[in-house]
Structures are given as structure tokens and as C-alpha cells.
TrEMBL record:
<dbReference type="Pfam" id="PF03960">
    <property type="entry name" value="ArsC"/>
</dbReference>
<dbReference type="InterPro" id="IPR006504">
    <property type="entry name" value="Tscrpt_reg_Spx/MgsR"/>
</dbReference>
<dbReference type="InterPro" id="IPR036249">
    <property type="entry name" value="Thioredoxin-like_sf"/>
</dbReference>
<dbReference type="InterPro" id="IPR006660">
    <property type="entry name" value="Arsenate_reductase-like"/>
</dbReference>
<comment type="similarity">
    <text>Belongs to the ArsC family.</text>
</comment>
<protein>
    <recommendedName>
        <fullName>ArsC family reductase</fullName>
    </recommendedName>
</protein>
Length: 119
């Protein structure tokens, strides 16, 4: 189903687990995409960057980012951000809920309720 939302994340992330439980509890059909196992396409990443901005996508507080070499942490533009996120998908803030061009970063039950109340 083309309009079916896709939830991007990693299975070990507590916030991703909460989002999945919420979607399932509300009976909302979605597809789960594991960033660690399935990777990430440059096309998806481009949509996300247009929607929320590359700065918001990078989880600078996360373990993956902190373990990067200092040279890779010095991200100053979209091209550098794209390269780092494609090379290290787990540096991306999670979860990402994508439905077409609509992209929601993170999980807050009230935000999800509003999204799905709109249809």
C-alpha cells in the first residue's frame, strides 16, 4: 500500500519500540524499516532533509555520533550530513515516521494522535 506509513528505526531503540507499540495499539498498519539491517537510500534521506532539515536528523547525543572520528563530526552542510548519515544510518535521530512527503521525527503520542486523526 503506497500510502502506508513507514517507521524507520533500530530494534534496540526504546523510543522506536514505544512508537511501534503505539501504532499497533491503535490498529494502524505500517511497515517497519530497520536502519541497521536494511540501510538507507539517498532518496529517502533527501525527502527527510527537505522535510525536517539535516541538522534535526543527526542525533549528536547518540552513541554512534559520539564514536565517530572528530573529522566526521564536523558537519557543516547538507552534503557532509548526507555522507555521514548514509555511511552511519544509526546516527539518525529515531524513529522517523514517513508517509509520502510527510515526515515526523521522534515519537510523542500526542503528535502521532494528531497525525492519524487527520487521516
Amino acid at each position: 500500500m503506497e500510502n502506508q506509513p513507514v517507521l524507520y528505526g533500530i530494534t534496540t531503540c526504546d523510543t522506536v519500540r514505544k512508537a511501534r507499540r503505539w501504532l499497533e495499539g491503535e490498529g494502524i498498519a505500517y511497515r517497519y524499516h530497520d536502519l541497521r539491517k536494511e540501510g538507507l537510500s539517498a532518496d529517502d534521506l533527501a525527502v527527510w532533509m527537505r522535510s525536517v532539515g539535516w541538522e534535526a536528523l543527526i542525533n549528536r547525543a547518540g552513541t554512534t555520533f559520539r564514536k565517530l572520528p572528530d573529522a566526521e563530526k564536523q558537519i557543516t552542510n547538507e552534503a557532509e550530513a548526507l555522507a555521514v548519515m548514509l555511511a552511519h544510518p544509526t546516527v539518525i535521530k529515531r524513529p522517523i515516521l514517513a508517509q509520502g512527503e510527510r515526515v515526523t521525527l521522534g515519537f510523542k503520542p500526542l503528535v502521532y494522535e494528531a497525525l492519524f486523526a487527520q487521516g
